[in-house]
Design brief:
It is built from 15 helices and two strands. The chain has 400 residues and is an all-alpha fold.
Amino acid sequence: MRRRGSVAPAASRGEGVAPAAGRARAVPTSLERIEWVIGLDGEPVRRNLLITQTYHDLSAALAHALGPENANWCTFATWASRTAGRFVREDEVPHGFRLLLGRFEPVQVTLARVNAVLSRDGKAEGDSLLDVVHDVVQDVAALVTAGNLAVFGELAPVFSRALEALAASRDTTALDALADSLAPGPSDAAGQALLGSALRHYGVARVEADPRRKAALMLLANGQVGLHEQIRLQPFIAGSIDAPIRDAVAEALQGAGRGLPAPLAREVHALVGRLLHPVADGTARLWEEFSTRELMTLSLPGGNLVLGRDLPAPRGAPLYPTLLDPIAEAEATELLAQYGADRPNAAGSAAVDWAHLPDRMRYILQLFRSRQCDGGLLTGPFTAEQHEALLDGRAVHGRL
């Protein structure tokens, strides 16, 4: 058995031969490399890890081009992608919730009583209820994976092209042509106007001499990309948190007596009728608590952030860095104010409902402002050994 925290190469999982090594060794921020990562359909675990690594590579290259004193959007995306990997690796989330549900007393009682009735007919129900829930949670993991891939597939190529444009020109308009090439219109109508605006602000920030205004322009650009990203993720996030756990449990219980002789069927149906609602409601409540904890915990180099709680200040530092308190750019202040993220402290920053876009953005914008000057975020997400194994398609061990 493979130990927890390791990723097996494709061949050992029967998923086909790994793509050509040349693609893995292409320039980390190149379109060729990004297209190769996107194409790893048969290796979702490895692909997620490579998405995380590619975001870091883009972040490091952008830090070199724009200045390392301010994190860019790819910096934050690195850690968000690494956190999302929990839903992909080793079936951890479905397994974790199944164990939690198995210890939930109403479910234990219901299974025991239904099974006791069924055993009189020689028909064992087993853990079918838990299996149904497990399948739903696996669907949630697939949604998280799909959302991460969709955002990467759109934004990584844009930032790859941005690096090429920044290398070709030192002018403030270096990214204007790229911005003009993006799809017009709002993000919720398949447009990329927010991305175009963000690129222009990155271009201006690059040559801005005033460090306070540069930091504000970077925050504005990061926030605009973040808003575009979250609009794109909305259906994936809403589907993850609002998973039909209750309906799946109810359907499984209601079907428990099918095919039984009439007396036993009536007994099972009466039992289910009495236990259905507390079990289905309790399971849905457990999922809401579990998914909120899993989906709303962001792992950063400085520790974990629980997104359902107010944003804590970085250890040994104020909540907001000096360069961003106050913010020296009216448009950046306006963006924060639109989502209630312009408060002088973190009170009320907690995302009460992560499926609600304004709640998410309030927290995300304050997070961006608070951690934008944290150099620790630029560290790599994996060790050198893990990185090499990942590119080679070998098992990746250790904390991921």
